[in-house]
Amino acid sequence: MASGRSGYPDPVERLIEAFERLPGIGRRTATRLALHVLKGSKDEARQFSRAIEDTKERVACCSVCFQLTESDPCVICADAKRDASTVLVVEQPRDLMSIEATGIYRGVYHVLTGRIDPLAGVDPADLTIGVLFDRIEDSSRNCRGTTVKEVILGLNPTLEGDSTSLYLAEELTKRGIRISRLARGLPSGTQLEYASAAVLADALEGRQLLEDETFG
Question: What is the CATH number that goes with domain 10-58?
């Protein structure tokens, strides 16, 4: 049986390399994960493989808001009880899920799939910002053909998040849209996904119009 560069059999080496390609996974952790799969039963390995295949085959981004979904549009965009005239902009699907967990927000969302970061080579064109502007300028592109009246900027309070919010605020002002952002009950540098439901609820309730303040 052929062996890989580490002395493991080739199939194990390929599995290690596959795990190693995941974000935040180094060689040591990838090896530990591969050996864990190897020690498990064949049925567990098949379940793991099927979970990956099902995710790739059945889950995609909502064509309206870019939330992860099995249906298009997603259940939030399609829900007639949601206020589609209010759009909360977040960086990632996990941020949307954190806010949904509060149970307080009844509008809809737009997921940017990232944030502007010139040092990392991420420009506005690399995000879904253009689609957000399309939703505002053409109501047929928004949930259930509803005209957008307010955009809430719910990006993470980091340097890159604030820079992205500033860019969006400037562009949205040109389009005559009411703009607000989450209250600064969120500590600087905090990721939304790690904030408690109570903190997020306060941030939503206390959101501020951007015409009342400027980014520091």
Answer: 1.10.8.420
Q: What is the largest CA-CA distance in the chain?
A: 69
Q: What is the rounded end-to-end Cα distance, in angstroms, of the chain?
A: 62
Give me the helices (H) in 105-181, please: 129-137, 159-174
DSSP, res 171: H
List the CATH code of the domain at 68-212.
3.40.1360.10
Q: What is the pLDDT of residue 1?
A: 45
CATH 3.40.1360.10 residue window(s) in the chain = 68-212
Residues 113, 182: Cα–Cα separation, whole Å: 18
CA dihedral 15, 21, 26, 28 (to 10 degrees): 0
- Give me the residue label for tokens 């039963």: 41
pTM value? 0.74
Q: Helices (DSSP H) in 2-119: which residue ranges?
A: 10-20, 27-39, 42-58, 75-78, 93-100
Distance from C-alpha of 66 to C-alpha of 112, rounded to nearest angstrom? 8
User: Which spans in 80-158 are helix H?
Assistant: 93-100, 129-137
Instruction: Give per-residue pLDDT as tens, 154-213.
Output: 998 888 999 999 999 999 999 999 999 887 655 555 566 666 666 676 667 666 676 655
pLDDT, one tens digit per residue, over 55-71 is 889 899 999 999 999 99
